[in-house]
Amino acid sequence: MVEYKTVKSQDVGFGKNNFIEIARKKAVTPEGETEFISVSRGFVSNSGQRRYKQSVTIPNSKEVVEGIIKAMKELL
Length: 76
Fold this sequence. Notes:
By secondary structure, this protein is an alpha+beta fold.
């Protein structure tokens, strides 16, 4: 069984009730732990609950994260 733990997260809000959550997470199993970056799109429901639509995971690698940041900046 895998248990997921959020180490740290930040939100970027957009639109009326939408957000993108960028989080450092751990997948914990009896065999050990693996850290990764999660980028999730979601919204806040009328009842105030956070609901998630889509998610992508990124390896916890400085080179990969810096490459993604560079590519995103070049798109602006």
